[in-house]
Amino acid sequence: MGTALQVTAFGLTLLSTLFLLLATCTDCWMVNADDSLEVSHKCRGLWRECVTNMQDGVRTCDQYDSILADHPVKIVVTRTLMITADLLAGLALATLVLGLDCITFLKEDPYVKLKMCYGAGVILGAGSILGLIGSMWYAVDIYVERAMLVSHNIFLGVHYDFGWSCWLGMAGSTGCFVASVLLTFCLY
């Protein structure tokens, strides 16, 4: 039972870490929601903003000026939280690999291997909470921005909605949290 649980947690951790990394690197955290008369598809991310022409498929991206430039708080906070979540998930994955029963590293000391799995679960839990906070921070800010414009009857031509990168960040963080629960509580 313990080995099956470890392998399940490892698979979920690997997939969730990949989701977190993809969410951090991709640029569709916000997508334009008004596609009735649009001839282009707009995506805003943590690092750049891209526009894809729907007629010919040409995609152009504008990088944000600099990492040190003045950016909106939601971008800076989300970048920080997501990068930290990525690093913690990667560290937890490496620790978990060494703590798996099917790996011959420290095979003569099963107590240390169990502690490594437990430690990976704790690290993964911290990373998942940071990733969830970052993804939810961004999503709530998109919702509040849109609600403010609607409540004041302001139409700027483009309304943004949650993009697939935001959903991917939430899914990766949730998967990391589930794997953390499996490793932290179910191994004992």
TrEMBL record:
One of its GO terms (cellular component) is plasma membrane. GO terms for molecular function: structural molecule activity. Its main location: other. It comes from the Eukaryota. Pfam families: PMP22_Claudin. Residues 1-33 form the signal peptide. It is found in: Cell junction, Tight junction; Cell membrane. The chain crosses the membrane at residues 118-140, 162-187. It is a multi-pass membrane protein. Keywords: Cell junction, Cell membrane, Membrane, Signal, Tight junction, Transmembrane, Transmembrane helix. Claudins function as major constituents of the tight junction complexes that regulate the permeability of epithelia. Belongs to the claudin family. This is Claudin. It comes from Sylvietta virens.
